[in-house]
Amino acid sequence: MLDLIFPYYLWVKAAHVVSVVVWLGGQCLLVVQLASHRQVLAQQGNADLLSAVEQRCLRLVVNPAMLATLLLGATLFFLRGPELLGEGWFQVKLVFVVAMMALHGAIAATVASLRRETVSAIRIRALQLAGLMLTAAIVSIAVIK
Ligand code: HEM
User: Fold this and answer.
1) Is there a contact between 111 and 117 (Cβ–Cβ < 8 Å)?
2) Of the four listed, 57, 58, 63, 125, which is most buried by Cβ atoms within 10 Å?
3) Separation of 37 CA from ligand 1 center, angstroms?
4) Residues 27-50 pLDDT 10s
5) Cβ neighbours of residue 96 under 8 Å, at least 6 residues apart?
6) Distance 113 CA to ligand 1 centre (A)
7) Number of the ligand 1 atom closest to the C-alpha atom of 138
C-alpha cells in the first residue's frame, strides 16, 4: 500500500499543508469571532445566531481540516519510516501538535460555554495568542528542521 502511494509523496505533503492552512486559518477566524460574540452577548444578552455560526464553522471546516491534517501527517510519517521518530525536529513538532490539539479542545469548549454564559476577555485573548505562537512554532520547525 505505502509503495503505491510513495511516488505521490509531494502531493500528500501539499495536501497536508493545504489542510493545515484550512485548520489553523479557520481556527484563527473562529477565535476572532468569539471576541465579537462576547461583546454582542454583553450588549444584547442573546447571541444564538453567532453560536450557530460557530458550531457550523467547527463542524464543517475546522474539525474536518484537523482530521485531514493528522491523517495526512501520519501518512507522510509512515512513508518516511519510523527512523523519523529519532529526529529532534520531529519530536518537538509532535509535542507542539499535541499542544495545538489541546488548544483546539479549549476553543471548542469556549464555543460551548458562550452558548450559556459569557467568558472572560482574557480567556479569548489567551486562545488567540496561544494559536498564533503554536502556529509560528510548528510551521517554522516543519520548514526549517
Ligand atoms: C498543526 C499541525 C501541523 C502543522 C502546522 C504541520 C505543518 C507542516 C508543514 C508546513 C510541512 C511542510 C514542510 C516542508 O516540506 O518544508 C509539514 C510536513 C510534514 N509533516 Fe506536518 N504539520 C502538522 C501536523 C503533522 C502531524 C500530526 C504529523 C505526523 C503525525 C506531521 C508530519 C509531517 C511530515 C512527516 C512532514 C514531511 C516532512 C518532509 O518531507 O521533510 N505533521 N508539516
Assistant:
1) no
2) 58
3) 33
4) 999 999 999 999 999 999 889 999
5) 134, 137, 138, 141
6) 32
7) 5
